[in-house]
Design a protein that fits this description.
The chain is built from four helices and seven strands. By secondary structure, it is of the alpha+beta class. The chain folds into two domains: 32 residues; 98 residues, no CATH class. The protein has a five-stranded antiparallel β-sheet. The longest helix is centred in the first third of the chain and has 29 residues. The protein is elongated and about 75 Å long.
Length: 135
């Protein structure tokens, strides 16, 4: 009887270990951050046009917040800037510009992609995407 209980315990422990180890890769995939990148197929964006579009997105209030029921976008010359956050857009200019002091934000997007005339996208804290494309 004692060896039967030991076998049952071993079997149950093995099944639990298999279940735990098989679900962890699924959880880690779901939490991966989307990638920042340039789009080499979309060219001839002018950094100045993207700056003008960004600063005319419609920031308001003391904290310079950008709000909208969905994605918010603005065109200027060759460039369209789109800000898209999960649910509805509600994000500060500081977070969008430089991701509150951490690497990222519109400034980095301009330095890495638009300065070469390319469109691109970058993600900031809170899951918001800042994207440039040809207007």
């Amino acid at each position: 009887m004692a060896s039967f209980n030991l076998r049952i315990r071993t079997l149950v422990a093995t099944v639990i270990l298999i279940l735990i180890s098989s679900t962890s890769p699924v959880a880690s995939v779901a939490l991966e951050r989307r990638q920042d990148m340039c789009n080499p197929q979309v060219e001839n964006l002018t950094p100045h046009d993207c700056n003008v579009a960004f600063y005319n997105l419609g920031f308001s209030g003391e904290n310079k917040m950008l709000r909208g029921p969905g994605a918010v976008n603005m065109n200027s010359g060759t460039c369209r800037v789109i800000v898209d956050c999960p649910g509805q857009t509600s994000v500060s200019a500081g977070r969008l510009l430089n991701n509150v002091g951490t690497p990222g934000g519109f400034v980095q997007l301009q330095n890495v992609c638009t300065s070469q005339g390319k469109a691109g996208q970058i993600f900031v804290e809170g899951g918001c995407q800042v994207r440039t494309e040809r207007a």
